[in-house]
Structure formats: C-alpha cells, structure tokens
Design a protein that fits this description.
- It catalyses: pyruvate + ATP + H2O = phosphoenolpyruvate + AMP + phosphate + 2 H(+).
- Belongs to the PEP-utilizing enzyme family.
- By secondary structure, this protein is of the alpha/beta class.
- It is 34% helix and 23% strand.
- The chain has 5 domains: 8-218, Rossmann fold (3-Layer(aba) Sandwich), CATH 3.40.50.300; 226-282, no CATH class; 320-463, ATP-grasp fold, A domain (Dna Ligase, domain 1, 2-Layer Sandwich); 467-654, ATP-grasp fold, B domain (D-amino Acid Aminotransferase, Chain A, domain 1), CATH 3.30.470.20; 677-850, no CATH class.
- It is built from 30 helices and 38 strands.
- The protein starts with 7 loop residues before the first strand and ends with a strand.
- Residues 531-536 and 657-663 have low confidence and may be disordered.
C-alpha cells in the first residue's frame, strides 16, 4: 500500500486519494453504505493495495452477512462471537489490537450487524468509542461500515465525534458516489463535495444542478428510533395476534431483558406473559438486562399472584419499580473515558490492583444527557416519596450465586429541592456502580470462577414501603424469610415450615447485625417458640433501636424503639409490642411524671393472634415449591389491623444449602473419651462427614483481653492463615460472631478472609459476654451456605454440650510458620494440624460431633 514519509496511506483509489489528501496512520474510516456489496467493493481496493505493499492485514469477522474479505493466507482473520455480550466482545477485540501491534491494517464487518446481537444502538456507539482510540494510538488504519438510515442520530453523532474519517457511499443507477462528511486535519476547497467514482477516476460534483439531483433521490432526513425501541414497539402490535406469534416475540424480549438461558430464565418463561415483558420495558431506563435482583423480585410476585387458590391476592402490596438497564453501566464507564482502566482491571494481574482506582473514578463520573432526563422523570414520578436504589447485577440472586451483601443498596429519603433530590439520586447510583469494585465482591467472583464472566450492573429503583410517622418514614415490620429452617435446635422444629427474622421498622436490621440489639427469630411451624439464644431476659435480648428514614434530616438513621412506637398513629401498637409495666412502675415510683409507656418489642399479638405468620409460611412454601429449591426473601409488611395487612416482597433468591441427603451415623462419645465438640442441635449444613486437616482456634479468654485495634489485627491474621491453608480442609473456631462489624461481639473478619474454610464454630458464653444471635439470614450467613461452609454454635456450659479447647491447644501451634510475629499471637490464635479429625452431623437426630 502506498505510504509516503508523512504517513499518508492510499485507499486504493488514486483519484479519491487526491480528493481527500490520502488517509493517515491512525485513521478509523467509517463508510455509511446502502448494501454490504458496496462496502465489499470499496474494501477490495483497500485490501489489494495493501497486499501489493506487503502490509499486515487483519479481518475482524463477526457478522452474519457474506464475508467482506475472501480467505487468504496473507490476511489474518479473527472470528468473534458477539452474542457473548458487549464486554466480552470489546475485551476480545482490545486484546487482538494489543497483540497485533502498531501499523496494522484492519477491516471490520458492518457494525450494524451488532444490532442482531445486542439490539441496542447505544452499545454500538459504546463499542466504537472504546475501540477506535486504541486503534488510533497504535497508528493503525481500520475500515468500518454502517448501513444508512438504520441507526439513531445520537449513535451517528458518537461515531462522527470519535472517528477520523466519515464517508457516505451511494450507488445510484449503477454509479458510485462518495461524499466525505469528516476528514480530520485535512482540507481543500472541494473536499466535502460528493465525488463520482469510476475506477481510479474521480469527478468532484460542484454543480448545484447535479448535486441537487443526486441528493434529492438519496438523502431522506428523518428521526430514527433506537433499534431497542423498534423491537418493543413492534411487540405491542403482536399482543393481540396469535399465541404462536406472541410466544415467539416473548422469547425474543426475554433474551433482551432477562438474559441467557438458565433455571431463572425458564421460570420466567413459564410465568411472564408478553404483556408483562412490555410493561417491564416501559419502566426501564436505557437498554439492556434488568439484572438478577429485579428478575427475582418480579418472578416471586408473579408466582404468588398466580397461586391457583388465590391465597395471596389481598395480602400483596403493589409495586411501581423502575429498572436502570445494564447497558447504562457500560455507557457510564465508556463515556467517562475509563474503559482502558477497566481493561487493565479485568486482567488477572490487575484484578485487585486497579480496582480502587476505578472505584474512586466511578463515584465522580457524569451521565449522558438522555439518561439524566430519564432520571429526572423518575423523581417527578415518585415526588417526595422515599426510594431505594438497589444493585441488580446480571449474576445476582441467581441459583448458586446470590452475591448477598456484596453490592450496595442506597436509600434516598428524597427530600429537598428538585436539584438536591436529583443530586442524591445520581450519587446513589454512582455508589452502587462503584460497589462492583469492592474487595469482597471481587473475591467472591474470583472464588466462584466468575473472574472472566461479564458482570454488568443493572439497578432496581423501588419506592420504600411504609408511611410517615412524625418526622420519620418506615414500614411497620420488615425482615428476611427462608423456606427451609436449618435452625433445627429442637427435634420438634419442622425444617420445611421455614423461618423469618423479624424487625420493627426498616429491614436493614434483619440483614446487618447491630450492637446490643436482637431481631426476632420466628419458626413458622410454631411462631411463638423461643429462639436458639439463651434469652432469659426478654427485654435485654430484643430489638431496642429502629432503623428509619428521617424526613427532617434527609437521611437514614436509627432511633429508640419507644420513640418509634409512640409515633405510630395508624394501627394498634400492641400488635407488635407489649407495655413494659415493670419499667413503667419503677419510673413512676422514682417520681417521673407524664411518662410515656415503655415497650418491649416481642411481636406477641402478631404471632399469636394474626394470620401473618401463616401467610408468610404459605408464601415461602409456594415460592420454594415453584423454584424446586429453598428460597430466601426480603419483605416488608404494613398493617391496618391484625388481620388487615399487606406484604411487599422486595427480593427473592434461591437459598444455597448442602447436606440434606443420606443420614450420617454419629456415635455418642462417652465422658471419659476424648472429644473436641459434642452438641445437640445448633448447627446448619445438614448431614456432613468432613475430615479436618487444620483447626484454627481463637481463644476466648485471650481475645477478651485485647484492645479493639488488636482484635481487628486478629481478624486480618485469620485471613492470612486461611489463604495460606486454602488447599486443606479447615475448621475455624472462635468466640461470638464471625464477621461481626463490632469486635466486642466476635471476630470482625471479612467473608473474603474466611471463604476458604470448610466449617466454622461460634462459641457462646453468657458469663463472658459472648451471646451470638446466630448469623442465619444475614448477608454473612448467605455467604456461608453458598460456599458450602458448615456452621455450628457451641453454647458453652449448656446441657448436652461438650467443648474441650485443650483438644486443640495440646497440639503444636503452627501459627509460628504461618504469620509474622507468630510468637506475639500464640496465646490468642492456635493452629493445630490433624491426621484423623472428623466432623459429623445428622439432621434427623440433631447430633453433632467433632473429634
């Protein structure tokens, strides 16, 4: 190919080279064409000249149209599957460009073909914007094509803005015309006229008579919808057509909104109608998938609405959620100029290294103007109702990967001027996007082999369920429900009846542990049954704080239970709480006047004299029956009376469990025999027979004496040890709650620090202040069960419980070999290696043994 000392490159058409003053190294050349055949002819000139001059040529093949470049040993061809999604496609091409190096000459298939894969003009513009600067940087020359009058003006505008050369190619009555629209850094008085092309001869059409006759026939100016909108507009027309036609269209829309084939996809196909999918699309911002959390919520509601016996109709609170499509996430990354950093972070060596830098950038970016306008419309729709912005990634809340608690959810109290409320919404969305780079989320993905899988972040925007009470907003109750209760601490507990963790106010306390506060654990077969904890003091071991949204302060906060109770005006408060008569009379005797009655939050009336626990049980059982899998739901409920209430299912996901199969024979160990732990009940994980290679023990007495900072240090050291021993079977034992955020309640490890262990034990001691409210239903617990980590609570000193720490501490302490300054921590952390230790549990007899 001709190339002079100034880097000028020939198109293969000598006359046209002179008209545009040649191409330059670094040029991306975009041809708007009417047919692929026209593009192929132009490419042929370019390729033939390149071959004559021994240029390195690469053909990027991804379209369904006929090949643009014929097979040749002199031309390197890459076949790429665009159906794998934008990120996979763009990443693959990035690596190709990187591999092929400088001054390579490229031919790409028609970009319009990507519509059949992504159904979005937006994403074609995104691809061009991330691909072309890298080609320019490596001084390549690349040919692209788009079919005329197919793409939106905004897509064409983004291509025009990014490319160096934009050319219109027309064919009229067999004659070819090229009309340059953009030629960067080159100019002549005739350059931007149309040119008649005949082999190597070019005639510049300057005559108004000829130009007007040409353009009158070919240039029709009209606004075009995004291909995404075209699909859904056509779908509305099919709603009243044949069942077969509707089903065909439904499958197409599901592929656009729900994602690839999976168990969740199949359930959606069974329950969602074409009308349902169109309704979802009408409430989507941008394009792309709505994500796992949105799908789970919508599917659960649909299953309950279609209950054959209509059991749940009157109990289901309506929802009016919006969905920010997953394509908006990529658009945000691309348009803010962070794609190259994203590519560095996606490598194995840069996976954690570049995450913080990318996270810091994400919280500062700007959204495209058309997306901002749709955000404004959402806020206008909700008015000043509080909303919550929730992560809804592609992999979230799916079978096997719930990503529980890995990504952020952000409340917007939604108070202030329209400008202030808009700023809060944008900040919340940025925060959710940035949480994709959280260390726990990255480690979770890496540990489950999802490192290279696209993890686009969609967003679910929900109206917060509840009402105004004084200066605060909250629902009457909220919580987490599970269809299978592995809290079988009593042989009379029906595992299949399920259980709920119940709180007054916002449900944040049901998933995140709060210091000195306890949620209500309810077994749904016997709702008034006392929980697993040693709760001799009903008031002490109950909920004392209530999470609310402060209308006055425009933020999420916690207030005292009595304040929240006295603000409730629309229902009998004794449904939820009992008057604390003992405290009331004591205060009165002390001389206090005008005392507001203090409450104990025990939900006695709700659980004894309401159908609420029955409805919750039946809902959970129905969802589990349809899922054919245990489920975990988040819910709120608002009451007019004990029997007049509505439940809002805000989230539903499969609950990962293990070990529900064949019974394990657990021998009974006599008192004179050696044993590490023997207990009745208080474990989760079903039937297990697990050999243990290493036991990692945190001594309760030594831990209690540490400063708070040293307790955090212990947590980090545990992470170091488990990572070094990750290829062995590990049993982790420690005081109180693993994963607590409060060191006084236990060891504050991150889940990523203990994800390699096989079993954990939480040792409770009332005398020493460690009273763990077991982790069931929390985000930390969800990680435990998904990762097949067995769990046992050891109630030190309780009946039918043996716990002998010397079984561990009598063995040589390996901590010296595993961490720096091991001698300093030898009394706190003891790592013992075993050849024959075994952990056994049997869910039928509720017996657990480790020796």
């Amino acid at each position: 190919m001709y190339m002079d000392m100034n880097g000028r490159v020939s198109t293969g058409m000598t006359g046209f080279d002179q008209a545009i003053d040649y191409l330059r190294l670094g040029d991306n050349v975009v041809w708007q064409v009417d047919t692929i055949t026209s593009y192929k002819e132009i490419v042929t000139y370019y390729i033939n000249n390149a071959l004559k001059n021994n240029r390195h040529i690469v053909y990027i093949r991804f379209g369904q149209h006929p090949r643009i470049v014929t097979n040749s040993l002199s031309i390197k061809t890459y076949e790429i599957d665009a159906n794998k999604g934008f990120e996979s496609f763009a990443t693959t091409i990035h690596h190709i460009i990187e591999k092929e190096g400088k001054k390579t000459f490229y031919v790409f298939d028609s970009l319009t073909e990507l519509l059949s894969n992504w159904s979005s003009d937006l994403m074609i513009g995104n691809f061009f914007k991330v691909c072309c600067p890298y080609l320019y940087e490596l001084e390549t020359v690349a040919y692209f094509a788009i079919i005329r009058n197919v793409h939106t003006y905004s897509t064409i505008a983004r291509i025009r803005e990014t490319t160096q050369v934009l050319l219109d190619l027309y064919e009229v009555d067999g004659d070819k015309y090229i009309h340059p629209l953009k030629v960067l850094d080159r100019y002549s008085q005739a350059m931007f006229f149309p040119h008649f092309i005949q082999e190597n001869k070019v005639k510049c059409i300057t005559s108004s008579q000829e130009a007007s006759r040409l353009f009158a026939n070919i240039n029709v100016v009209e606004e075009r919808l995004d291909y995404w909108d075209v699909i859904f507009t056509r779908a509305k027309e099919i709603v009243h057509q044949s069942i077969e036609k509707q089903e065909e269209t439904k499958q197409k829309l599901m592929a656009l909104l729900i994602g690839e084939k999976s168990r969740m996809y199949d359930l959606c196909a069974t329950y969602f109608t074409l009308k349902d999918l169109i309704r979802i699309a009408h409430r989507e911002i941008g394009t792309g998938f709505i994500g796992g959390k949105s799908v789970g919520m919508l599917l659960a509601r649909k299953i309950l609405q279609q209950d054959p016996n209509k059991r749940f109709e009157k109990y289901l609170e309506s929802h009016d959620s919006f969905y920010v499509g997953s394509d908006v996430f990529y658009t945000y990354i691309v348009q803010n100029g962070w794609w190259k950093l994203r590519m560095k972070q996606k490598t194995r060596e840069g996976y954690f290294h570049y995450a913080k830098e990318l996270r810091d950038k994400i919280v500062t970016g700007k959204f495209p103007s058309n997306i901002k306008e749709q955000f404004v419309q959402i806020l206008e729709y909700y008015g000043q109702s509080p909303i919550i912005v929730r992560s809804s990634s592609l992999l979230e809340d799916n079978f096997g990967n719930a990503f529980a608690g890995k990504y952020d959810s952000v409340f917007c109290v939604n108070q202030g001027t329209p400008e202030q409320r808009y700023a809060q919404l944008e900040e919340a969305i940025r925060k959710v996007y940035a949480s994709t780079m959280n260390e726990d989320a990255l480690a979770y993905r890496m540990n489950r082999g999802l490192f290279e899988k696209d993890e686009q972040m969609a967003i679910l925007i929900q109206r917060v369920s509840g009402d105004h009470f004084g200066d605060h907003f909250f629902p009457h109750v909220a919580g987490v429900g599970n269809s299978s209760n592995l809290y079988v601490w009593d042989k009379n507990v029906d595992m299949n009846a399920g259980m709920i963790r119940l709180v007054f106010g916002l449900g944040t306390r049901a998933v995140d542990r709060t210091v000195d506060d306890y949620v209500k654990i309810v077994t749904l077969d016997q709702p008034t049954r006392k929980g697993l904890m040693l709760m001799e003091d009903e008031k002490k071991y109950s909920q004392h704080g209530v999470d609310v949204l402060s209308i006055k302060e425009n933020k999420w906060k916690s207030i005292k239970l009595d304040q929240a109770m006295h603000e409730v005006w629309n229902v009998d408060r004794t449904i939820f709480a009992s008057i604390d008569t003992e405290t009331f009379f004591r205060l009165r005797d002390l001389g206090y006047k005008n005392i507001q009655a203090p409450y104990i939050l025990n939900f006695n009336q709700l659980l004894k004299h309401s159908t609420f626990p029955v409805v919750m049980r039946e809902m959970l059982q129905q969802l589990a029956h349809i899922y054919q899998y245990p489920v975990d739901v988040e819910f709120t409920a608002n009451f007019k009376s004990k029997e007049d209430f509505q439940i809002n299912i805000v989230q539903c996901r499969p609950l990962q469990t293990k070990g529900l199969g064949k019974s394990v024979s657990v021998p009974y160990v006599l008192e004179e025999e050696d044993c590490f732990i023997q207990t009745h009940g208080n474990f989760m994980g079903g039937n297990v027979r697990l050999p243990i290679d290493y036991a990692i023990y945190v001594d309760m007495h030594a831990y209690l004496k540490l400063t708070e900072q040293d307790k955090y240090t212990v947590a980090r050291l545990i992470g170091t040890i488990t990572r070094k021993l990750k290829d062995s079977n590990l049993f982790l034992i420690g005081p109180g709650r693993w994963g607590t955020t409060t060191p006084s309640l236990g060891v504050p490890v991150h889940f990523s620090e203990i994800q390699h262990v096989n079993a954990i034990a939480e040792v409770a001691s009332k005398q020493k202040g460690f009273m763990p409210e077991l982790s069931y239903g929390s985000h930390f617990f969800q990680d435990i069960v998904e990762s097949d980590i067995f769990y046992v609570a050891v109630m030190e000193g309780a009946k039918e419980t043996r716990f002998d720490s010397t079984y561990i501490t009598s063995k040589p302490n390996k901590v010296f070999h595993l961490i720096d300054k091991g001698k300093q921590w030898r009394n706190v952390i003891h790592v013992a290696q075993f050849d024959e230790m075994e952990l056994l549990s049997d869910i039928v007899t509720q017996r657990f043994l480790c020796r």
